[in-house]
Design a protein that fits this description.
heterodimer, A: 242 residues, mainly beta, 9-stranded mixed β-sheet, B: 206 residues, Protocatechuate 3,4-Dioxygenase, subunit A, two-stranded antiparallel ribbon, 3 helices, 7% helix
């Protein structure tokens, strides 16, 4: 059995470019010079390890993790679930997944958010969980609302949930956003549309999952996540100095 | 026609946005929800080696500090060992080597306390100078930016570091070397990150 080696090179054309003039904030925050490509060393192959002691079981239940006793947030009850895989279709087990989102009215619980929709007293808007041995994760939450943002004067974000995923090496670190099937704002959003390949946008769009939907309770959306895969070290290409 | 390769595409990145704190540092967003927020203690109480502080700003292409950044740090301990099952060696109990830091909403200043890492074994017998790996996300950053922080008092190790030496423009190498100083008897390194423009920080595609 060969040891796993370097991560596959990230396909930068599949990701949004650093600079997209339609996403105005990217203009002054994007490097102008080329990234310098590194072969993976121990610094990129390794990454932080988390355990169940780092989190609480209730952390993945946004219907309850900030609600007062006997109450709950306003909004459409949903389940967001899926698997974290690598590019070789191998499950990424025991990895930390964190999410954050606006409430059903499109308002974030954040001291810098000034949108006129109200804060929900029973909704914090963040959650976290560890994938199981099959790479599976799930959250219970409310479907977030769309909201306006200052880009063009009439720019609106489609409903979305932010996700942060670790993987097992720092090279796999990823933050992304999950959108919802059928949202008419997806094709109008400059942040989404900074991704050039429509198939890549599809990959960020969760599909309704009637089989996982709980009758008379919650609609499920399925969102699988793919992290970078690793080469098998079939030929000598030593990472370590030993 | 030929066979299809069945590799999956990596999930595309999207910006962390201005409210990244809600998910990754909710206390900074203005509320208390988790038993413990992750990433506030990089080295833990038992770590050997020199205790240091690292401070800086992230500066955009107009010269203004970016005030809604989140940075993650990943480093080895003083023996050059990463707290990871694939890395040979042991770390001190409680040493994780990973941390999160956010910028002040008013000044854009950030800072974290840790221990100075040791040299780490590099590829093919090389030795990497002490460094901290940084990953920078914010509104307006579509894919998280990777860079490394090296130390100004490690001139000999830096001179032979295989990654620093990959940067063919020698005048750019200083953009990833933190400047050592002192304040009230404590060691403080300054590391400003310039996203764009004059002295743009070297970022890596890892």
């Amino acid at each position: 059995m060969s040891k796993p080696g370097e991560y596959y090179q990230r396909d930068r054309a599949w990701h949004p470019p650093a600079l997209d003039p339609s996403y105005k904030t990217s203009v002054a925050r994007s490097p102008r010079l080329a990234l310098i490509s590194l072969q993976n060393s121990a610094s990129e192959i390794t990454g932080p390890v988390f355990g169940h002691n780092d989190i609480d079981p209730i952390d993945n239940d946004l219907l309850k993790n900030y609600a007062q006793a006997g109450e709950g947030p306003i909004g459409e009850r949903i389940i967001l679930h899926g698997r974290v895989l690598d590019q070789n279709s191998k499950p990424v087990a025991n990895t930390l997944v964190e999410i954050w989102q606006a409430n059903a009215g499109g308002r974030y619980r954040h001291k810098k958010d000034t949108y006129l929709a109200p804060v929900d007293p029973n909704f914090g808007g963040c959650g976290r969980t560890m994938t199981d041995e099959n790479g599976y994760y799930y959250f219970r939450t409310v479907k977030p609302g769309a909201y306006p943002w200052r880009n063009f004067i009439n720019s609106w974000r489609p409903a979305h949930i932010h996700l942060s995923i670790f993987g097992s090496g720092f090279a796999q670190r990823l933050i992304t956003q999950c959108y919802f099937e059928g949202d008419p704002l997806i094709p109008k959003c400059p942040i989404v549309q900074s991704i050039s390949d429509p198939t890549a946008v599809q990959q960020l769009t969760a599909r309704i999952d009637m089989n996982a939907t709980i009758p008379l309770d919650s609609i499920a959306y399925r969102f699988d996540i793919v992290l970078r895969g690793r080469r098998a070290t079939l030929f000598e290409n030593r990472l370590e100095g030993d | 026609m030929s066979q299809e390769l069945d590799y999956l595409n990596e999930t595309p990145s999207q910006t962390a946005g201005p409210f990244v704190h809600i998910g990754l540092a909710p206390g900074a967003a203005g509320f208390d929800i988790y038993k413990q927020e992750l990433g506030w203690d990089i080295a833990g109480p038992n770590a050997k080696g020199e205790r240091i502080r690292v401070e800086g700003q992230v500066i955009d292409g107009t010269g203004s500090p970016v005030k809604d950044v989140l940075i993650e740090a990943w480093q080895a301990n003083t023996d050059g060992v990463y707290a990871h099952p694939e890395h040979p060696g042991e770390v001190e109990t409680g040493f994780r080597g990973w941390g999160r830091v956010i910028t002040d909403f008013v000044t854009g200043e950030w800072g974290f306390d840790t221990v100075k890492p040791g040299c780490v074994a590099g590829r093919s017998g090389s030795v990497m100078a002490p460094h901290i790996n940084l990953w920078i996300v914010a509104r307006g950053i579509n894919v998280g930016l990777n860079t490394r922080l090296y130390f100004s008092d490690e001139a000999d190790a830096n001179a032979v570091d295989p990654v620093i030496n990959l940067i063919e423009w020698e005048n750019r190498r200083q953009t990833i070397i933190a400047t050592r100083g002192e304040r009230d008897g404590a060691v403080v390194y300054r590391f400003d990150i310039r996203l764009q423009g004059e002295n743009e920080t070297v970022f890596f595609d890892i």
